[in-house]
Amino acid sequence: MNEWLKKLIEQIKNLWGKWSVTQKIILVSIAGVALLAMVLIIIFSAAPSMVPLIGTPITEDTDLSKIVMVLDEEGVEYRITPENMIYVGDDKTAKRIRAILIREDLIPARIDPWAIFDVERWTLTDFERDVNLQRAITKNLEQHILALDDIDAVSVTLVVPKRELFVEDQKPVTASVIITPKPGSDISKNRKKIEGIVRIINFAVAGLQDENIVITDQNGIQLNIFEEWEGVDRIEVARREIKTKKNLEQQYKNEILKAMRSIFGQDRVQILKLDINLDMSKKTISTEEHFPITMREDNPRTPFDEKEVVPSITLSREVREEHFEGTGFNPEGPPGQEGQTPPAYKDLSNLVGKYDQSSMIQNEVVNIKNIIEERSPWNIARITVGIAIDGLWRKKYDEKGWLIINLDGSIEREYIEVSDENLSKAEALIKDAIGYSRERGDSVTVEHIQFDRSTQFALEDAEIRHQKQLRRTLLSIIIGLGAIFFAAIIYRLISREMERRRRLKEEELARQHQAMREAALRRAEEEGVEVELSVEERARLEMQENAINMAREHPEDVAQLIRTWLIEE
Known about the structure:
569 residues; alpha+beta; 12 helices; 17 strands; 47% helix
C-alpha cells in the first residue's frame, strides 16, 4: 500500500512539473470552488427549514412589495424564490404574519379567499372571524362574477348587519355591485344576464333578498330595475307572437299551395290572403271528476263481466227521532193574574196531543279525481283563407296538327273555366287541410278568377314569330345554297364538256400533224432522203412505241389506266 501511495505521489509530482502556470491556476480554482460548494451545502443543510407564508406564488409586483414592507416592519427574516414564493423562519411566524395580512386586507386577489381560514391563532376574536368571512365571501363572489365572459371588472360590497334579538329590529343584508362590461358586450341591455348575476349574488350570500341588491355599471346606471324592462318585455313578447303567427301562416300556405298546384298546375293557384288569429293567453283549467267506486274487479279469465261498482260508500250516518204525547205547555201570568194566552188557543188548552219527528244525516264518499290542465302556449282562434284558381288556356290546332296563327302573328287560344264542381271539391280539401271549424268562425273562400297572362302570351307569340322568321330564313338560305350548288354543278359540267371538246380538238390536230409528219417521213424514206428528227420528235416516237409495246404485253393494266383517266375527267 505504501508503495502504491508513493507511486501515486510520484506521478502527481511528475504531472505537476509538466503543467504550465495556467493549467496549475485552473486546477487550483476548480478545487477551491468544489470545496466552497461542499461547505455551503453543509451550512444550508444544517440550517432550519423555512415554511411558506402563502401557499401560492404572488404574481403581482404591487402585492409582493406590500407584503415585503409588512415583513420588514415586523422584523421577520424571509426569503423570496424566483417563482415569487415567500418563505419565513417557522410556522409560528407564518401564522402571525398571515393574521396581520388578513387584518390589513393585504391578501392578494388571486389567492383563494377560503384558504385564509386554514390559519388560526388564539388571539383571533369573533368579530375578526366575521370580518374575515365577509371578506372571503366578497372576494369569492367577485371571482364568480369576473369569470363571466361579459364582465371586464367588478367590485362587490356586502353589508351584513349584526344579528338582533327581535326580527322586527333586524336590518336586512344588502349588496352593492359595480360591473364594467367588456367592449361589445350586451349585458347592459340583456335582462337574462342581469337576472343571472342577481341569482349568483342571492345564492352566495345568506339572507340576501333581491330587492336589497343594487347592480350598476361603471357609469352609475342601475341595471337591475326590472320594472323598466316590462315595456321591452311586452315588445319582445309581441314580436315573438307575430313571428309565430307568420311562421304558422307560411306553413299553411306552403302545404295548401303544394297540394293545389299539384292538382291544377303550378301557375293556376294563388292564395290572396291567409290569416290566422292566435290566442296567446295562458290558461289553466282545473276540473273535478266524480266516478263510481269499484267494489269488485273483473276477472279477465271469465267470459262475463264480474265487475261491481257502487255510486258511493256511506262514510257516516246520524239518525234522530223525536216522539211526544200529552198536553202542551200553556204559559200563565204571575200568581193571581190571568195568563197571556190568546183566546184562540185557550180552547185548546188541556187537550192531549201526539207529536213524532225523525231525521237522518248520512255522509257518502265518492271517488274524486282533480285534473289540472294547462293550455298550450298558443291556440288558433280563427282561420281565414281566400284562394283564386285560374282556368285553363289551350292552343288551337288545325286538322293537320299545325298551330293556328292569327293575322297579327299571335297564337289563337281558347279559355276553359273551372267548373263549380271542382271549386267545391277544392274548397272541401282546403277545409280539411286547415281543420275547418264553423264554431270557431273559420272562413274559406275558393273562387274562379281569370288571371292576366298578357305578358306570358306576348312572350309565347314573340317566340312563335321568331321561330317562324327563323324557319323562313333557314329556308331561304337552303334554297340559295341549293341554287348555288346547282349552278356550280352546271358550270362544272359545261366546263368539262368544253375542256373535253378542246382536248379532242387538240388531239385531232395532233393526230393530223402526226399523220402528216408520218406521211412526210414515209415519202422521205421512199425517196431515200435522210430526215433528221428533233429531240422532241424522237422522244415522242419512243414513248409511242413503248405505249404500243405495253398495250400488247399488258392489255389489262392499260385498260385500267384508261378507265382511271376517264373517271378523273
